[in-house]
Write a structure and sequence with these properties.
The complex is a heterotetramer, with two copies of chain A and two copies of chain B.
Chain A: H1 4-9, H2 15-37, H3 52-61, E1 67-69, H4 75-81, H5 85-92, H6 127-139, E2 146-151, H7 158-169, E3 174-180, E4 183-184, E5 187-188, H8 189-192, E6 209-213, H9 217-233, E7 238-243, H10 263-268, H11 272-282, H12 288-311, H13 317-320
Parallel strand pairs in A: 1-2, 2-3, 3-7, 6-7
Antiparallel strand pairs in A: 4-5
Chain B: E1 2-5, H1 6-20, E2 24-28, H2 44-52, E3 53-55, H3 60-72, E4 76-83, H4 91-97, H5 101-104, E5 114-119, E6 144-146, H6 151-163, E7 168-173, E8 180-183, E9 195-198, E10 203-207, H7 211-222, E11 226-230, E12 233-235, H8 239-249, E13 252-259, H9 265-276, E14 285-289, H10 298-304, H11 308-321, H12 328-331
Helix pairs in contact in B: 1-6, 3-4, 7-11, 8-9
The chains are: A alpha/beta, B alpha/beta.
The complex binds thiamine diphosphate (TPP) (2 copies) and magnesium ion (2 copies).
One magnesium ion binds next to strand 4 of chain A.
InterPro entries (chains B, D): THDP-binding (IPR029061), Transketo_C/PFOR_II (IPR009014), Transketolase-like_Pyr-bd (IPR005475), Transketolase_C (IPR033248)
Cofactor (chains B, D): thiamine diphosphate
Keywords (chains B, D): Oxidoreductase, Thiamine pyrophosphate
């Protein structure tokens, strides 16, 4: 079994691995959806199908000692950051072996070994925390960056405004990444927000911003690299807006019937996995046979992760009382 | 009498109020076109249109405050905070602004608004979407707090809340949304009046929201003769009904989904002890959730919530031998 | 005794009355400061010296059935809106005759007869409330407007962002007025905010904005009129930034020693009362003799208001329990 | 031992911790250049410089959350919320994020941060700047809550709070800032331990923050033999000390500045009743503020806060005749 850190490092400079990890995320979400429908997962889930390029772009540009504050929609970014399908699925199933020990669930992914802070289920919850992590790095004179990843609709919450302003005035090494997947729950972004290009809000804080095609992993990497470089240089924060699309419904059983006809199909033509596939084929490092082999491997990998997670033990009553407070060193 | 689900009782109350009073407007995240994530505004957008039923951006502070301002200008806004936790980004507007405007204006302005919020554990929504959090709002002079336990009280109390001239926090046990009950739409209920759902002689059980149902099952299971008091309104709570009951039975158990520390049940015990001390035959006590964040895992979450089995044992201990049943995490030795 | 509404209406189209009311505000604040220093006022006070043109500009452009949500720094706007010096001073002194019955104090002015909502002592507290008032007007198909008046530093609180966005998306008849007096407490605005022209933040909401010389009552009126017209036409909100300067310290005994040398003096040359005075002299409707007479009148008016307030009764214990809840109609 | 004001004890504790641990940083509105609106960070900016002592914009949500994030990355941030009410715009970050990060990370991340906030009535700051509001935070598993009563406990407990590995809410009775007391900077105090300030046999008086001083005066005035328990830590509160005292004296009075409804004192009464029922000689009771927004007028504000005169009368009623003293607004007939 590879550790999270090993799985993270395995992506380094390895384009095929990016593609494979994207396949893993896609397959993982497909199975999650299936398991939820079958009643084998409780609560709620928020799938990230269609956003794999963004997740991989983040994971491959950041270092494992950089940190990310993300949201309830984080299966993909967790896998991209290096967590195993088993660790994520076990968490979704509430097992003791899950990345949060089974007390978190689908909305709360975490792994300190790769800088994945506990993801927040509160809109805007993670932004000030990423700012604070960046503050620590600045004080500690470390070259790390803090990243907040959140949705388009989250740009309307007060914490967004306050976080960007504070980061700007303190010139913190933090990057705010808007995953603009066009919807906040069942509401199209234009119904809740009077401007289309959300990154333009950076102007309110004299902060540089970047708009990027979130379906293109290379584009995401390039934009993130620019922002990361700025942060590591000590030149402060950046607001990045990645234009993506939520292929699935918002959560659970949502069929997304509120979508205008043809919209999904339009975006599916720009499926990030498809785009990566085409790019790699063009570069001559991927072909149909390899694709098939990889897909089979991934199907099996995710399947056995699920089988394993299902067989895993549940946390005990005692576990529920652990980690409420950190005990003091005596 | 009509059989309907708890969530339909909410819809019906909203609809009936909107029909009878055009000052009533409704807004919140996905309450209009999508009819609410818990379908608690089904049909209202179609019926009352986009002026009176509105989707908001994800901006709890702005839309809670917008309700305050609209109420002061003569509307009767009802807003939906999807999960009670989300009030954590907007508490100021309800508690520090809305609840104080009547006072600060010598009574010139009134703030007739209702903040509906779903609350409670049991559905696997994890630690940031499963608390009841009455404590955030309960010590706010100027704010009423209601928490119905079934479709009938949801219907009647929501109507009363909308008709009230004051800001009202209306907490809905999320786990009850799908539960069915008989509703008499002509039945009025008064804010501040507890419901004695069942009468008995040996013990008083006080509960709120879904815990009323747990308490009912427990009483049946324990086969004790109990007064079951559904508090229904937490602020201002019905001291008279509770005290009369305790004076009659001499025993008091409060069942609450709040944590062991800081939960609202302490106030019931404390008041009853002060006011009915000489009537008490044994120590009153609370049955609560433990002092932990709500765990996601289903088995743990089920243990987190007070269970009928445990409450039943507590009832027997009190009635049969005047004993206090300690929390399970203490008796089982899993925590202090 | 004139009512608040009469005093408000007395300003209508009467430039001399504006000037006189500005003198009243100035004298009122001078006496407030003196009384505080003498220990005759408790708690805290926030003076508005230097901002009289903004207060009068607002009061003369809005109608008495428009509403204003302002802040703890509202003695001036209360007087401009029509409240008597007696009513405001009695409130500051905690008397039963005060505009909030003595339970509010300096930070909580209110008078429903002229649309002054209870002012909030929480930064950002009034903005959503003004939005809500505007929402009511829109639903009721009234032609009124809601106005939020707040400081420069308040543009960094989350409620600012959320309120502007909500107002924009709902196209509400609301006007956000930034009283940019250069300081938030003891901190110069450039230390907390990375941009200088705060009205530019309106771009984040596709909202029109106006920058105006807040020392010039005519300019304030013109800008407000533009915003009010837009709102009454149903064309939505406006963000107005009035450039003013806080002549006094932040509150109470603050000597404002943190000000750069010469800054106060620079602004004092643009004292709004001075500017109005000069304009009226130029127009030939004011001369030195009239000024002297008015000043004497105002000094006496404020003085007798204070004398009266001091002699007024305190609220009774019973008053403290009134108006917590509105009793139901039976 | 050094005589210093309460606010200087705060400064000294901050300074000593910053000196001994470079991970400690301080930020908030006007805490740096201006040294705090209550001068609770006097000299710290000069001493520790702009990297460790920072002024923030007026953005409580952002800077409270920034403390959470910085703490998770190994710093020990102390932030100042100028008036406790301002947490109403930022509660989410402390209660729903910060307090749950350790739990949600299987203990991998810790959040050693302190949120200092001034609280309480008595200085004429009006209804939005005068409450104690413990109830907003007290039912939060994962968050400790401290409220010192004098310069010594302010000093020792603030140091303990900063050294603690968990998020701590540190409430400072604003009215105490100017009070002087003797401080022994070598004295350590433990979080979660109450201080028995005075021992007696006939009644246990439990208080917090400035109410400890009111209680002390009352005990002297009433000339009763009382245990005076300064709770000092509200979460987790010292059940053992309180229960032992109640078992000894058989009488319990809690003095609190919270409102009558929803105040923290209920929990003390409730727990003591449950755990020490048979030891009680008479009904325990609370002395609290009334259920009204804090009034500005000085006479009313003085009545709002529990007074030594009233507490003294209550002590006598309890000790001399086992009676409960009703709240003054009831006995005087000004309210129900
Ligand atoms: C403060 C708060 N308000 C509301 C919600 C409910 N909610 C959960 S997800 C969501 C939509 C978020 O949309 P967006 O930010 O675009 O992210 P996406 O789900 O598309 O990834 C809402 C309203 C919440 N979790 N927190
Ligand atoms: C939420 C909140 N945070 C902090 C404060 C404390 N405070 C009162 S006035 C003030 C400065 C406000 O500056 P600005 O908005 O420019 O208004 P001004 O005082 O200059 O009129 C601060 C920080 C508050 N009242 N509310
Ligand atoms: Mg989205
Ligand atoms: Mg200012």
């Amino acid at each position: 079994m590879m550790t999270s850190l090993e799985r993270r490092n395995a992506l380094k400079g390895n384009e095929l691995a990016w593609y494979e990890r994207m396949l893993e995320i896609r397959e993982f979400e497909r199975r999650t959806n299936e398991l939820f429908a079958a009643g084998l997962i409780r609560g709620t889930t928020h799938l990230c199908v269609g956003q794999e390029a963004l997740d991989i772009g983040l994971a491959t540009t950041l270092n494992p000692d950089d940190v990310l504050a993300a949201t309830y929609r984080s299966h993909g970014v967790a896998l991209a950051f290096g967590l195993s399908s088993h660790s994520v699925m076990a968490e979704i199933m509430g097992k003791a072996t899950g990345c949060a020990g089974g007390v978190g669930g689908s909305m709360h992914m975490c792994d300190s070994t790769v800088g994945l802070l506990p993801t927040s289920a509160i809109i805007g919850g993670g932004m000030p925390i990423a700012v604070g992590a960046a503050l620590a790095f600045q004080v500690q004179k470390k070259k790390n960056v803090g990243v907040a990843l959140f949705g388009d609709a989250a740009t309307n919450i007060g914490a967004f405004h306050e976080s960007l302003n504070l980061a700007a005035i303190w010139k913190l090494p933090v990057i705010f990444v808007i995953d603009n997947n066009v919807y906040g729950e069942y509401t199209r972004i234009d119904l809740s927000t009077p401007i289309e290009d959300l990154h333009l809000r950076a102007a309110s804080y004299a902060m540089p911003s970047i708009k990027v095609d979130g379906m293109d992993v290379y584009a995401v990497q390039a934009s993130m690299q620019e922002a990361v470089d700025r942060a590591r240089r000590g030149d402060g924060p950046t607001l990045v807006e990645a234009k993506t699309y939520r292929f699935s419904g918002h959560s659970r059983a949502d069929q997304a019937l509120y979508r205008p006809a043809g919209e999904l199909e339009h975006w599916q033509k720009r499926d990030p996995i498809l785009l990566t596939e085409q790019a790699l084929i063009k570069k001559g490092i991927l072909d149909q046979a390899k694709i098939e082999a990889m897909k089979t491997k991934i199907v099996n990998l995710v399947d056995s992760a699920i089988t394993q997670a299902q067989a895993d033990p549940e946390p005990s009553a005692k576990d529920m009382f652990s980690n409420v407070f950190k005990e003091m060193r005596k | 009498m009509t059989a309907m689900r708890f969530r339909q009782a909410i819809v019906t109350a909203l609809s009936d109020e909107m029909e009878s009073d055009e000052r009533v407007i409704l807004f919140g995240e996905d309450v209009a076109a999508a009819e609410g994530v818990f379908k608690t505004s089904e049909g209202l957008f179609d019926k009352f249109g986009p002026v009176r039923v509105r989707d908001t951006p994800i901006s709890e502070m702005a839309f809670t405050g917008a309700a305050v301002g609209a109420a002061m200008m003569g509307m009767r806004p009802v807003i939906e905070i999807m999960f009670m936790e989300f009030l954590g980004v907007a508490l100021d507007q309800l508690v520090t602004e809305g609840a104080k405007m009547h006072y600060l204006s010598k009574g010139e302005y009134t703030v007739p608004m209702v903040v509906r919020a779903s609350c409670g554990a049991g559905l696997g929504f994890g630690t940031q979407h499963s608390q009841t959090l009455e404590n955030w709002v309960a010590a706010t002079p100027g704010l009423k707090v209601i928490e119905p336990s079934d479709a009938q009280s949801a219907y009647s109390l929501l109507r009363a809340a909308i008709q009230d001239e004051n800001p009202v926090m209306f907490l809905e046990s999320r786990i009850l949304y799908a539960e069915r009950g008989e509703v008499d739409t002509s039945l009025k209920m008064e804010i501040g009046k507890a419901r004695v759902l069942q009468e008995g002689s040996d013990v008083t059980v006080v509960a709120l929201g879904n815990m009323v149902n747990v308490a009912r099952d427990a009483i049946a299971d324990a086969k004790v003769s109990a007064d079951l008091v559904d508090l229904a309104t937490l602020v201002p709570w019905d001291r008279e009904t509770v005290l009369n009951s305790v004076k009659k039975t001499g025993r008091l158990i409060v069942v609450e989904e709040s944590p062991w520390s800081g939960g609202w049940g302490s106030e019931i015990i404390s008041t009853a002890t002060t006011e009915a001390f000489s009537a008490l035959k044994c120590a009153p006590f609370r049955i609560t959730a433990p002092d932990v964040p709500v765990p996601y895992n289903g088995t743990l979450e089920a243990r987190y919530i007070p269970s009928a089995v445990h409450v039943s044992a507590a009832l027997k201990a009190a009635v049969e031998s005047n004993q206090v049943l300690k929390p399970w995490w203490i008796t089982e030795g899993v925590s202090k």
